[in-house]
Predict the 3D structure of the following.
Amino acid sequence: MFIIITGEEAGPVSNKLGGVWNVIDAEARHMSAITNDEIIVVGPFFERIGQDWSPKNRVTRDHFPMGVRDEIEKAAERVGIPFVSGRVEVEGKCGEVVDGRKHYINYVLFNVEYSLTKSVEYDGKKMRLSDAVKAEAYKLVGLDSLKYESRSYGREYTHYLNLSYAVSEFARALNEFGETAMHCHEYPVFYAAARLEKLKVPVRTVVTFHATKVGRALGAKVFDRIRRNDPTLPEGIQEGFVELEKLARFADTVTFVSDKTRAEARLFYGVDGIVIRNGIDVCREAIDWKFKDDCLKKIRETLSKKLKDVYGYEVDEESIIPVYTISRLELENKGYPDLLDSLVILDRILTNRINNGEIDDVKVVCMLITAIGKKDPSSLPEGFPVDLPDDILVGDELRLKKMVEERKLEIGRIGKRSVCALPYPQWVGRDDGGLGMTIDEIAAGCVAGIFPSRYEPFLLTALEACREACPVVISSACGFSGAVKELQKEKGIFGGVILVDNVNQSYLEVITDYAFGLHVIVDAYLRDKAKDRMMCSTAFVLACEMSWEEPVRRYYEILKGFEERPELVA
C-alpha cells in the first residue's frame, strides 16, 4: 500500500521549523516504523529564493541519498510538472533501531509554480495549466477562483490550488500501481481530497484541521461565537481560504487536533469528525537533572555577563530566575499583553516578599522568544538580546519592545526590578548570536514556561517544555488544555501544568492568575526543592503520556480502513 502524507509545509525545507512541519515529519517517521507500506511525503518544491509566494523565502532541499521506487517515480512523472524525489532512511523516534529492519520515507516535491506557465488544452481551449485547474475546480466543487485570484492573497490561493491538483494527480496515478491512501494536513491541500472524491478515484482520504481560518481571524472572540451558536463570518476574512477549508466535507474522515477546533468547524463549516491530538517524542526514560542544572547555569552566566557588558550591572548569577515563552509573532492572539501585565503583578508580589524578608533578592527574567524571521548572527550586537537596538527590529518585533518599555519591564531596569521581560527576536540555536542554545536546552534551563494564548488550536510548545521537565502555565484557550484535563481526570496527573481560565474570567482575574501561576513555580524553586522536583517530574510524565505513538496509530488505522468513517454534519 502507498500512504501519502501531504501539506503545504511538507518536505525537507531548509528554513522551516515548528508547526505543521513538525507534525508531518513526526507522522511520517512514526508511520514508517509501524508498517512495511510505502510512506510518501508530498509537498511543494521551492528551488530558489523569491519563488515562494510568502515572505519566508523557503528553499527546499533537493538532494537525497536514494531514489524512490519506479512506481512512485512514474506516478510523479504523469503529473506533468517538474518535481524532485528521493528516499531517506529513518531511525526510530530517538535514533534507536526498530525491530531490526530498515525504515524509509519517500519524498515527492512538486514545483507547482510551473503551472503558471505550462500550456494545456482544457474543454477544447488552450490555456495555462493553472487556469485549467481553476476551471476544473469550479466544475467539480464550485470553487469560483475568479473571486479570489485578484485579492491580496490571490497568489497564495492559486499556489494552494495548483499544489492540491499536483497532489491529487499523483495519488490518482499512484493508485494504478496499488492501493493508495492520503492524509492531508490543513486547507492548502483539502482540494486534493475533494478532487479525488469528485473524480471517483478510490483513494481513502483523511483531512486534518490544525486550526480554522475563522478561528485565527476571530482569536479569543471565537469562544463567544461558539457559545452564541453564531456562524457569521468576520469582516475581512480571506473567503478563498474559507472555501478551501469547507472542502473537508468531501474527505472520508475529518480529524481535529483539539475539541475547540472541532467546535469551530462544526459551527462555521458544518463539518464534524474526530479529535486526534498532536504528540511529542520523549527520548529520555528519566529526567536528566544534571543536564537541567548545566543549562540553567549557562543561561545565568550568559545573561549575567551581558548585563555587565551592556549596562555595567553586577548581578549575582544565582539570583537570576529565567522563565520563557515562545511562539509565532502574533502579539494579541498569543497573549503577550496579558503576559506582560501579569509580569508587572508578579514583580509587585516578589518585591513585597523581598522587602518583608520572606525571600532573598531575585531577578526573574522572562525571555519572549518570537521573531518575524531568522537574523544573521553577524548583524547582531555582542550583547544581544540584552543589547537590543531598534534598528535590528522589524514590524511587531519593535512593537513588542515598546510594549515592554511602556510597562517599565526592560532588562535595563533589572537593578530596580524583581521581574523583567527580555524580547528575544531570533530563531534560537547554537549560532543565534544570543544564548547560543537550542530551544530544548533553553526549556531545560528555565525554571518555568508560560503560554498565555488567547487563541491556540493545540500548543505543542508547552508540551515541548514539559518534555524537558519544565513546569508551565498555560491558558485554557489552547487545545492542549483539553488533553491536560483528560489526563488529570483519567490518570490523576496533577501539577507541572497550571491552567488559567482566560475564556470565562475577567481580564484582571486572568492576569492575576498568570502571575500567581508563575509565582507558585518560582516559589517552589526558591524554597521547596521537593515540590519543585515534583512539579518538574509531573510535567515530564505528562509529556511521556502524550507521545506520537497513539495518534499515529489512529491515523494509520483510519488510512488502512480499519476504523469506520464518522458521520459528518449535513
Q: What stands out?
A: The CA atoms of residues 90 and 349 lie 50 Å apart.
